[in-house]
Amino acid sequence: MTSVTTTGAKSPPRILQPRLDNWPAAFILAIIISILAIALLPPKASFWVSLAACALAAASAVYNAWGRYKGGLLVAPAIALLFVMNIFPLLWSLGLSFFSYRANRMKPPAFIGLDNYEKILTDPTVWDRLQTTAIMAILTVAVQMVVGFLLALLFSKQFPLRRYLLILVLTPMMLSYVAIGAFFRYYYEPTFGLLSQFVRMFTGEPFILLATTQGAMAGIVFADAWMWSPFVMLLVLAGLVSVPKYLYEAAAIDRLSGWRQFWNITFPYIRGLLMLALLFRTIEAFKLFDVVFLLTEGGPGTSTETIAIYVYRQAIQFNKTSDSTAISYILLFTVIVLTNLYLYLANRRAREA
Amino acid sequence: MAAGGFFRRSHGVGEAGWGRTIFAAVISFIYFFPVLWIILTAFKTMNDVLAVPPKFLFTPTLENFVGVFSRPFSAGADSQATNFDLYFFNSIFIAGSSVFFALVIGTLAAFGFSRYPLKGNDTYLFIILTTRMLPAIVVIIPIILMFRVVGLAGSYTGIIALYTAFNLPFTIWMMKSFFDELSPDVEDAARLDGSSDTRVFLKICLPQVVAGLAATAVFGLILTWNEYLFALLLSGVETRTVPVAMAQTIGGDIGVRWGLLAAIETLFLIPVILVVFFLQNHLLRGVTFGTIKR
Q: pTM value?
């Protein structure tokens, strides 16, 4: 810990206030140094220079926290690790998104300003993938909300063996995307898959679900919604059981109809949680990758290629590193906005409780 | 614990009888069917797996489970190394160590965030959670570049460090929610008696959140075990994890060893079902990364 602060002491941030605990200034300085380093130095040197700059910023943040608060010492290791493994790489890729760079070429990155952003925002392919992602997300979240809600109603009362039956419903949520992707691929398989064999009982012909755009979309939505409806159920259930019993007793005295009772008594208690479930699932659906990747690989053609798969292809298969970081930043921005909204609602609910 | 988790006496919609049990059982079994089919597949021979029409009744075999752990996996004439014993070891080792590190670092941080709020505490917590909510592909591109430069690609160190960071936000939020729930009375009393902060943390707070620690560890293990994209892009041949190996198995369309995959997944189901059963009270908190307590 001491060594970290001495590093900070040797080179204090120079902009605005040259003070050690001026961590916002240190962060800005670190970003500027990183961008300059990536622009001017060879990759390997620029990496270490950027890392040093960011370590300096981190040291400043740690010093700031530590000098004033006891808590700083406790959170410092966590923040340092997250900084090195998440925030620093993200800043680095933010820098890269203003450059023309391909990871498989020897050519050093060249500064091109906002060209990458201009290119992707005018690229019809990106918009097409965003549209695919949006359709998929809306469909799967809608199905999850409805199925999850119905399951919650089913389990909202106490009955014998309820706890054991809940296990059956809650298990899909804890499985891996890979397993879900793999096994739904097996279930959708044209010759020996369960679905095809079931359809063949009626039509007499094998059924190839994943061959058409709509079919593939339906297959993905079904698998994803099946996996995550229990999540919505869990949240709605938490709302349903938080309704005080005396309200129902009062409703019984007033002879409220079942429908009125639901809207006037139950719904206000689950409204907040429904909203949270919706947001949480939307964020997750927006990132949809694994299950699509394993089930259809984006096909047929590119009709089920989500934006996450598109970025993966661009970055890993085509090595368009800086283009993909630019799209990444648009995704990142969207997720930050949604997460912010989610936490705002979650905190408000926690305060009300 | 028991059924009381979701039901406080003065709350809830009410009771229903065996009629509801039968109805719920039918729905639950339909819902569980895809998982049930995985379990059945795990006990089938290759021929039964590919049978048309699907077989509900068959002679169970353990050959798939044997195939997971012994190197030569014989399917008919050819015998082939599955290497799944190595992948199992990798998954357990990587998930175990990263969850352990995340738990140590994260619990300290959670205690700090809970008891000694920093200026801009909520902002820190928001940024921490955001790093967990980001699409994996967004985070991984720069990390690949970084690992290539420093030579961590394909090594245990690299992937464990990454997974520790991956588990950290979750651990911090979970543990903070548990620390927040503790009654401050005992702590205040101990402080008045002259206990040091370290002593208060170790002797008073920590013992009260042991269940929370266990829940966090188990959820962390499941999340890490299931993670695919980071492992796909960062693990080498020797550090490959189970999901990556499973995905590779289904890459080639012909001769997919569904029985073997099903056996792997069935083994994984055992801890999952235990978790869903014993940690039902913490499930909501676990799946929402500690943002919603009840």
A: 0.82
